[in-house]
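FAQ

Q: What does a record look like?
A: Structure on top, sequence underneath. For example:
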C-alpha cells in the first residue's frame, strides 16, 4: 500500500471528512513519528509495533566499480519491531 491508497481507504471509511482533511491527518501522523525518532525517542503503537532508531558504526566500504576503499560514516537508521498481534496474524496463529 502506498500513501495515496492509505488516504483513499481512510477517506472511504470516514465519508464525513474531506479528502484534504484525511490527508492532513496522515501527514500529522507520519510527521509526529518522524519527529519523535529524530529526537531520539521511540513510538509504540499497542497491537501494531514499535518504531525506534539504531546506531550503525562507521565502517570501511568499497566502491563496487573501482574496488577502492571508501569511508562510510556512522549513522542512525529507523527500525520497526512488529507487535505480537501482527506476528500472530502473519503466521496464522
Amino acid at each position: 500500500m502506498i500513501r495515496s491508497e492509505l488516504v483513499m481507504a481512510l477517506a472511504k471509511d470516514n465519508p464525513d471528512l474531506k479528502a484534504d482533511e484525511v490527508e492532513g491527518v496522515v501527514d500529522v501522523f507520519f510527521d509526529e513519528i518522524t519527529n519523535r525518532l529524530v529526537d531520539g525517542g521511540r513510538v509504540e503503537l499497542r497491537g501494531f509495533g514499535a518504531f525506534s532508531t539504531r546506531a550503525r558504526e562507521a565502517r570501511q566500504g568499497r566502491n563496487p566499480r573501482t574496488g577502492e576503499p571508501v569511508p562510510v560514516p556512522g549513522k542512525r537508521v529507523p527500525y520497526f519491531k512488529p507487535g505480537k498481534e501482527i506476528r500472530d496474524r502473519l503466521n496464522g496463529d
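Q: Is there anything notable about this one?
A: The CA atoms of residues 8 and 19 lie 8 Å apart.
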